[in-house]
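Ops channel
N.P.: pipeline sanity check, posting one input/output pair.
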């Protein structure tokens, strides 16, 4: 029987439970893909899905892959943070600028905007008149790329990419493509998934609460009944000489096991039962009627959104803290 403390009991799935909880409350059900210089992350609302969460949610059928997006990446180091360099298609120089083609409306002269600049003022090279308001006196025809090395003008430059991680400069032809999976949440699997996650979620919460109040926690404790049958107690809380059993009833099987435990207890016990009323419906009763008996039972509804507060409340009441 191990006495696991917080540091040893690491539950990475609790983040997923929290996310599921948010989704259940009607938050956005689209998984957002965020690509930035540090990597690729997935968000549900403002919560990040860890690799582990994604894996688990996929296994549960809760996360479905809806396709891929491709991202150009470095052929050497694989990084996707790239600078895009314009290159002259004629001489291959990287010294490419943008030139704006404008017309002086009054005289009809057409030229590049830079030709109009003289001593910090705008003067038309055609008629020699000063331009007071470029917005009304000049008409922009468009812009072209212009090689500062050979003078070539072109509509679209060739492109090279510089990897900002390793410095490699490469062409589009040499680039690699990173295929990034896209996900959506399958809300029909939500209820089932919540029940699976709630056990991990609850264990994590109990460890945190117990730590706060100096309560020892044991998981999966064997308890021998009057009949000699050994029952599994999911969580046992201990403080001084006081022991409290924590039990979850999240499905019909839990309800059956709990009923047999109650009937087989050698002596009345203090218990906190996290109970989902739907789970005991098949037995034709509610959580509170199921719990009625000799033992002292505090029922905490298995509602993920208020679970931590309700659980802490119940633990404090039972231990009189
Ligand atoms: Zn690189
Ligand atoms: Zn050139
Ligand atoms: Zn002019």
């Amino acid at each position: 029987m191990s006495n696991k403390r917080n540091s040893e009991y690491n539950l990475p799935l609790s983040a997923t439970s929290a996310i599921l909880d948010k989704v259940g409350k009607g938050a956005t059900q689209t998984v957002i893909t965020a690509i930035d210089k540090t990597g690729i992350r997935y968000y549900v609302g403002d919560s990040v899905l860890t690799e582990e969460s994604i894996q688990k949610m996929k296994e549960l059928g809760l996360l479905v892959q809806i396709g891929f997006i491709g991202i150009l990446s470095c052929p050497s180091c694989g990084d996707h943070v790239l600078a895009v360099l314009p290159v002259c298609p004629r001489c291959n120089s990287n010294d490419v600028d943008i030139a704006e083609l404008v017309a002086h409306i009054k005289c009809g002269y057409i030229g590049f905007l830079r030709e109009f600049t003289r001593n910090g003022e705008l003067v038309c090279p055609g008629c020699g008149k000063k331009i007071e308001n470029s917005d009304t006196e000049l008409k922009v025809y468009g812009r072209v790329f212009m090689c500062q090395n050979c003078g070539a003008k072109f509509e679209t430059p060739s492109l090279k990419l510089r990897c900002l991680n390793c410095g490699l400069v490469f062409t589009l032809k040499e680039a690699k493509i990173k295929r990034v999976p896209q996900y959506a949440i399958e809300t029909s699997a939500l209820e089932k998934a919540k029940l699976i996650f709630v056990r991990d979620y609850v264990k994590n919460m109990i460890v945190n609460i117990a730590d706060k109040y100096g309560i020892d926690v044991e998981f999966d404790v064997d308890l021998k009944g009057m009949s000699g049958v050994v029952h599994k107690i999911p969580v046992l809380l201990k403080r001084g000489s006081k022991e409290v059993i924590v039990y979850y009833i999240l499905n019909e099987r839990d309800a059956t096991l709990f009923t047999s435990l109650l009937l087989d207890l050698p002596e009345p016990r203090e218990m906190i039962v996290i109970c989902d009323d739907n789970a005991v419906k098949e037995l034709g009763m509610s959580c509170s009627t199921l719990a009625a008996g000799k033992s002292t039972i505090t029922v905490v509804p298995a509602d993920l959104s208020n679970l931590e507060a309700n659980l802490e409340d119940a633990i404090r009441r039972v231990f009189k803290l």
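N.P.: looks fine end to end. The chain is about 25% helix and 35% strand.
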